[in-house]
Structures
1.
Amino acid sequence: MSQRRISRQQSFRIDRIQAERIARASKREAKAEALLEGGALGAEQRGRIIAHYGVQLLVEALDGELAGQRFRCHRRANLDALVTGDEVIWQPATEAATGVITALLPRRSVLVRPDPYHKLKPVAANIDLILLIIAPEPTPSAELIDRYLIACEATDIQPLLVLNKADLISEGNRDSLTALLASFAALGYDTRTLSAHGDTGDLASLVAQHTVVFVGQSGVGKSSLINTLLPDVAQKVKEISTGSKLGQHTTTTACWFDVPTGGALIDSPGIREFGVWHMNKDELLAGFIELQPFIGACRFRNCAHASEPGCAFQQAVLDGHVQARRLASFKRLVSDIGTR
Ligand SMILES: Nc1nc2c(ncn2[C@@H]2O[C@H](COP(=O)(O)OP(=O)(O)OP(=O)(O)O)[C@@H](O)[C@H]2O)c(=O)[nH]1
Ligand SMILES: [Zn+2]
């Protein structure tokens, strides 16, 4: 992936948008402080961020008599960025279905992506399973899968590699697809083969036990899988991504969907692109889990893992501990960031 270069004109635009954002932020925080000073708020309790509505956040109450109900909330000034999936402390206000968020509870995981200034911004929190979807068509690229997995490793969220469109497996592609899945299974990644249009295997029960996101390249069947598993949700995601109901602010922010059978889905166009974002050299290396035991074992400290004598990575390939394709992929990704 190449970093986007920002033209002068674009950068003025970004500065203006940023200034507007700051102005809006101080306004919404002033509102939260006014509500807090007013003193007419209900008891502090736990809630979860479900979506962003422009300056307000939609919070679902997690405890007590309000559990399951949703409240449009302002946020205190001193809070860090809040994202969908965050668990928070909030207080209901006197106006119906509104409230104030006063604290962010610790995150179990967070997905981040770079903003136009290359600063990493959180986009969703507390996800515990990434469903990385591939399919016979579009033809899967092992290197693209590597990149998604690197991004997963950087988040500490468990990935599951799912080959969708099993009905399109034929004599012509069976061996290569089987080998592809096996090569990632050999690294320790869990895999599934299923079909959004047919047998979805244990996907429903997996989703029911987790907070999941679906990622993968365009056309692999993410929408179809969501549609098969959660028909109501698929429709809502569509409305959000076209911005038809909730306004333009929601087009890039993630939304939380409770799954009727348990578990939840967080989805947005931005999240679906997860994994093709910028990564630095340390993250790249950390993302190749099978290389970890060999880090620091090369003879030369600045080893490029090419043809140097005493390269532990090359030796690991010769010894059958590391796949040659994966080492080549790692080196290509490192050289890509070096030339940007
Ligand atoms: N044969 C077959 N086709 C499928 C299956 N799942 C999805 N498709 C088809 O693949 C195409 C793309 O599916 P989508 O669900 O739109 O893919 P997506 O990953 O959501 O694509 P983006 O929205 O572009 O990210 C559609 O024509 C689907 O009908 C499947 O299991 N079998
Ligand atoms: Zn080396």
Note: The chain has a mean pLDDT of 86.
2.
Amino acid sequence: MSTILSQLPHPVSLRWTEEGLQLLDQRRLPLETSYITCRSPQVVRDAIVTLAVRGAPAIGIAAAYGLYLGIRHLPDTDTDGFWQTLQRTAADLRSARPTAVNLVWALDRVLLRAETDRNLPLSQLKTHILEEAQAIQQEDAALCRQIGENFLPLLHDGMGILTHCNAGGLATAAYGTALAPLYLAKEKGWNIHVYADETRPVLQGSRLTAYELQQAGIDVTLICDNMAGHMMQQGKIQAVIVGTDRVAANGDVANKIGTYSLAVLAKAHHIPFYIAAPTPSIDRNTPTGDDIPIEERDAAEITHGWNTATAPPGVNVYNPAFDVTPANLITAIVTEYGVIKPPYLEAIAALPTFKR
Ligand SMILES: CSC[C@@H](O)[C@@H](O)C(=O)COP(=O)(O)O
């Protein structure tokens, strides 16, 4: 697997410093580039809940560092206190958002490392916990790039690609998942035209995807979510590529609300519909999409986006943050190990075992 980490022009989503975990405050993009310094797991949790850091892989990486922040200043002599705090902090971080399985995957991986090194002195154990969080971050950048490479045979110069939400460098350690092939295509000199769905209600598509692609000099056109069908009918789109928060064992995929509608539209227009999925987003313990917990967010995201009232006071609102696309609408799922095609149950079961 490639480990080259290219410097993309947009600011990095997470960085570890001696002071603590610095998170790019994605709520302020594209107008302002500022970082939140997290010195405690509570601040990390709050950043996850309020979408300062978002995107399944980035949430997992942030939580892993959050776990370290919870124990780093504990006395090296209180073993019981250490283990109690570690478990309590993990439980607290785990509940920050329910849909992205990367969150529990990353926490479980750090806990497993701690358990494996249980007999070491606490000072050393703490260092190992930090190293595990750093490894998760570094591996994420490498596997995102590999996903991009694995996508390239499915794409060609000159095509139009529709994407939804933000599954780019901002949602990961680097490159992104759905956007990784676009960065690699650019490196090859291909001219790919990207259509970025605005992605109501929180506008990850316009605030983040359009921003990061524009920074990289990639040809991007912003459209409202309800324009996707029209663009397909006009023959502008030759493939849809989106990321995921969780892939069930049968290949059903949870992703940002609106993804399912795109898959139906793509099917109606005979356009391939691709999922970019790092294996930490694949949950073999969740049998089908029906078993994936779907986060419901505050009604104010819809009624008061950007502090302007856009609905009558007191109106009923329903705000699910994700939907599930059934496996039968998905042309292929591209992982760091390669491209998997239906039947997904068998293909997912046959993936190499990954740390969970
Ligand atoms: C590589 S990010 C994949 C998904 O997490 C992404 O597509 C998405 O839906 C993010 O939703 P968000 O609510 O912004 O965290």
Note: The chain has a mean pLDDT of 96.
